[in-house]
Design goal:
Chain B: It is an enzyme of class 3 (hydrolase). The structure holds two protein chains of two kinds. By secondary structure, chain A is mostly helical. Chain A has a domain at 19-264. Helices cover 73% and strands 3% of the residues of chain A. In chain A, a hairpin with a 2-residue loop joins strand 2 and strand 3 (173-176). By secondary structure, chain B is α/β, with parallel strands linked by helices. In chain B, the strands form three sheets. Chain B has a six-stranded mixed beta sheet, sandwiched between helices. Chain B has a four-stranded antiparallel beta sheet with strand order 4-3-6-7, covered by helices on one side. Chain B has a two-stranded antiparallel sheet with strand order 1-2. Chain B contains ten helices and twelve strands. Classes of the chains: A mainly alpha, B alpha/beta.
């Protein structure tokens, strides 16, 4: 009875399709927003912002994006790292070509460019499915990394082959570059996270979200009720890539400051984000956040405990991280494909009825 | 019966049957060497319940697949509401107002009953994606209007209690009913049902027959259905087409078809020469 629905009657269809059907959920969400915007920036140390909060926010955006494509629309992608690179390099080119353009718009434009690239690589999805599509996106991943490495124009022919973000400000505060204060970068990313999470919720509860899920669950049945499979899949590729492009843009410009494509956006990133949505929960917004939090926190916590506290060598701790993640992936794929989000739902159901088991 | 005048007439139970809504002309469909449909022609009239019957493998499902665009016949043509239909994709045919259910249930397993039926409203929802992303305004209004239609269907099919249940968890009979609901949600002009009562017990069959009759009567929906249960077919259909080995062997009212010697042969398994 901790978690109550009683007395929380729905009297219209508007209420029934609200983002958070239970008032308590809505309050938790509002509390999270207040905490994230008004409390965290003032109480968190720079270390925590850099080691945990920033990667968490940025990868939560990528996880939301991949979840739209894979979790909602059922199209597996191993190209996330490559698409993040598209976002990052778009940002770099736009920043250097248009020094006066506000970084906020540059990030959004980078998302739009990535959406276009995503559509291009999504075209084969009409013909190929599942494993074969995964391989095709894997090819996209390697092609994109290779291209950003080889074509000098993308990194303005810099000698190091790296890209680095010059200083840009928003409302007088440096967001990128060496002088950016961690709390400013954090807030900048946070705005994107809340906006994109809200957009995801709206998209997934309406017509387009249902058409994605219809294609995922039974494509021939989707077709006989009027869903155009190619358009629907491409819309998922576009919107998903938009998110992933923004994530890559923020990862490069706001978080890293400088990047080398193979290291920052290699295949490991594709797997990292895929693991986030598998562990967090396919087809769940909450799961995207839970998975991102988990994958970001796990190595930090393991390091704090085993390396710093017990004194194990760091490479051993890194291996422990791999073992745990690998085990969890197997566990979730076999036992609970809806990930942490489903476990959370089960706990909620139990709390709702507690202490009466039925 | 095919030479019946195109004018409308009124049935014994007072329903109005109009002109031809669909005409299937000389359709031949081959899969490699297998001829699934051989030169078949028939029509479906506005407002009627048209049954397609025949032994296993007769080509009934293939015929529906031709009508809704999954299969492309090598020969023949299809007229919908008097117009010859060019090559079209299944989703375009759906947009013209033809809905169907499948012999093997094809629901969206990961979605609730409500979402499955809401998905059936797809062609009636028009808000562009960016408005759906913003939600407030047109998208929300449209969602509520369509939700109201869907709730009426849910009431009609008496499935209020399973509104929020993931369809994968429902028993077979209810899944069939939800699938009918999803097809109805499209408010089709022509509804194709592939064995809507297969695998059901007597009580479930009675319910389903009643729903089909009510859909036809209350919404005036034209229905073409495939069914193996002869009792049901004879009870609910206005006219029956009989297929056997890809050929049409009978076409007419239930009584006419029942009296047709070729049909009797096919059903009693008399060998063909
Ligand atoms: N996609 C296909 N590829 C090859 N052959 C097919 C295909 N679809 C149907 N057939 C063949 O066409 C013939 C007619 O099949 P169809 O499914 O239309 O029969 P049916 O009348 O619906 O039978 P049932 O009562 O068993 O459902 C069969 O011989 C079948 O094997
Ligand atoms: Mg069949």
């Amino acid at each position: 009875m901790f978690y109550r629905e009683a007395g929380d009657y729905k009297t219209s269809y508007v209420d029934d399709s609200q983002t958070f059907p239970i008032a308590l959920d809505r309050r938790i969400y509002m509390a999270a927003a207040v905490l994230a915007f008004l409390v965290v920036p003032f109480v968190m140390t720079d270390y925590l912002v850099n080691a945990i909060m920033m990667p968490f926010l940025i990868f939560a955006i990528a996880a939301l994006g991949l979840n739209i494509l894979t979790g909602y629309c059922g199209q597996v992608s191993l190209g996330t790292g490559g698409f993040m690179a598209v976002g990052a390099y778009s940002t770099y080119k736009l920043m250097t070509a248009f020094p006066d353009l506000n970084i906020f718009f540059i990030v959004i434009l980078s998302g739009i460019i990535t959406a276009g690239v995503g559509v291009l690589f999504g075209l084969p999805s009409l013909r190929i499915k599942g494993f074969y599509l995964a391989v095709a996106t894997l090819a996209a991943q390697f092609f994109l990394v290779w291209m950003f490495n080889k074509v000098g124009w993308f990194y303005n022919y810099s000698a190091s082959g790296q890209i680095s973000a010059p200083e840009r400000t928003v409302l007088g505060q440096a967001v990128t570059g060496a002088n950016a204060a961690p709390w400013v970068s954090y807030l900048f990313c946070l705005v994107f996270v809340f906006a994109l999470a809200w957009l995801t919720r709206n998209l997934t509860r309406g017509r387009i979200g249902r058409s994605w899920m219809a294609i995922r669950d039974m494509d021939i049945a989707a077709e006989i009720i009027g869903v155009n499979p190619l358009r629907t899949k491409l819309s998922a590729f576009a919107i998903s890539s938009f998110y992933i492009g923004i994530s890559g843009s923020l990862f490069f410009a706001v978080y890293l400051g400088a990047a080398e494509v193979g290291e920052a956006f290699g295949i490991q990133k594709s797997f990292l984000v895929l693991f986030m949505i598998i562990i967090g929960g396919l087809g769940s917004i909450f799961g995207s956040f839970a998975g991102a939090a988990f994958m970001v926190l796990l190595p930090v916590i393991l390091k704090l405990f085993f390396a710093d506290f017990i004194g194990w060598p760091t490479d051993l701790v890194a291996h422990l991280n791999f073992i745990i993640v690998g085990g969890l992936i197997v566990f979730f794929l076999i036992v609970e494909p809806h990930g942490l989000a489903a476990l959370w739902r089960t706990i909620k159901e139990k709390l709702r009825l507690w202490p009466f088991p039925h | 019966m095919n030479d019946m005048s195109p004018d409308s007439y009124t049935t014994a139970d007072g329903r109005t049957i109009g002109g031809k809504i669909m005409e299937v002309k000389n359709i031949t469909l081959r899969f490699g060497g297998v001829v699934a449909i051989k030169d078949i022609s028939f029509d479906i009239r506005e407002g009627e319940i048209r049954a397609i019957i025949g032994p296993n493998g007769a080509g009934k499902s293939s015929m529906l697949n031709v009508i809704n665009g999954f299969y492309h016949p090598q020969e023949g043509e299809i007229l919908f509401r008097g117009e010859k239909r060019g090559p079209m994709k299944p989703y375009q045919i759906a947009q013209q107002g033809i809905a169907r259910t499948f012999q093997n249930i094809a629901l969206f397993k990961g979605m609730s009953t409500l979402d499955n039926i809401m998905t059936g409203r797809f062609t009636h929802m028009k808000a562009p994606v960016w408005k759906q992303a913003i939600w407030r305004g047109e998208a929300e209004r449209e969602e509520i209007e369509n939700r109201e239609v869907v709730e009426k269907i849910i009431d009609f099919l008496e499935i209020q209690a399973i509104r929020k249940t993931p369809v994968g968890r429902l028993p077979y009979g209810l899944q069939k009913r939800v699938e009918l609901g999803r097809a109805l949600a499209a408010e089709p002009k022509l509804l194709l049902l592939d064995e809507p009562m297969a695998g059901m017990n007597v009580e479930e069959k009675e319910d389903m027959s009643r729903f089909i009759l009510d859909v036809n009567d209350e919404f005036g929906t034209t229905i073409a259905l495939i069914e193996h249960d002869m009792g049901v077919v004879m009870d609910i259909s206005d006219r029956v087409v009989v297929l056997d080995y890809g050929k049409k062997i009978g076409d007419g009212t239930p009584d006419e078809v029942r009296a047709n010697p070729e049909v009797i042969d096919a059903y009693l398994g008399v060998s063909h020469d």
